[in-house]
From TrEMBL:
Protein name, per record: Phenazine biosynthesis protein
Taxonomy, superkingdom: Bacteria
Family: Belongs to the PhzF family.
Amino acid sequence: MPLPFHIVDVFAESKYSGNQLAVFENAQDLTQAEMQNIAREINFAESTFITQIDKKTNAATIRIFTPEFEMKFAGHPIIGTAWVIMNRIFSDPKQPINLMVPIGKIPVYQEGELVWLQSAQPEFFSTFSSEGFSEFSTLKKNDFSAELPIQEVSTGSAFVIVPLNNREALTNLKLDLLCTHEWLQSNCKTAFQALYFFYLEGNDLYSRMLYIENGQLKEDAATGSASTCLQAYLLKYHAANLQITNQQGDAIGRPSKIYFNGQWDGVNFDIKIGGNSQYIAKGTWEV
């Protein structure tokens, strides 16, 4: 069975940067196992499968897979898939669309070249002491922010948000695989377990996302779901109105830019992230 697919770089200002994504059309007849096998074969951070599309209502249903498991929500796959749908399938990027994912409906729209998504309301879980990080990282006590907490936050996928007080510590950060795995298993509230380190100085925001998959310690080039969590965190602890650019991926040679636009009124969060997508290739996959 031939399956049309597209490859895009997401949160990328130019080709061959940002986060890679494969988007598969006409996937409604695939089993979950087949989708998982395809995602494992292409081996990007995530691949998406369009299982339903309705041009009359500007809506689509998608499923998101890493090489190891299916995700309920992920930012760069939603941004990239929406770009493909609006610019290559619907051919009308001016019309907002709704993407249905396991956590619900995600409104997406395009302004100029930027595609924006509206995230779900965040959940704030446990806070942690920085002392435990010395057991699995190169970080020292004075590398952590004294004003901001280390906390697990979710907008559909959960991340432990770790604020640092200098860019050098972020740049030189290294983790021990086994000890990191033990810490994540012992402390995280959700099945998806990852660490999102960041440094903020004025309007300069830099981040790194590290996680364990298939027994390997990996780093993501651009993480939209983590960025919605970080934006919620910053709205709560730093500023109730936020327009800033999150820079990620430099440590692995795939620089990315994730645009933040958020507000918090003390009760409800209005969290939007945006990014550019670069079209790389299209083809047909033989299932």
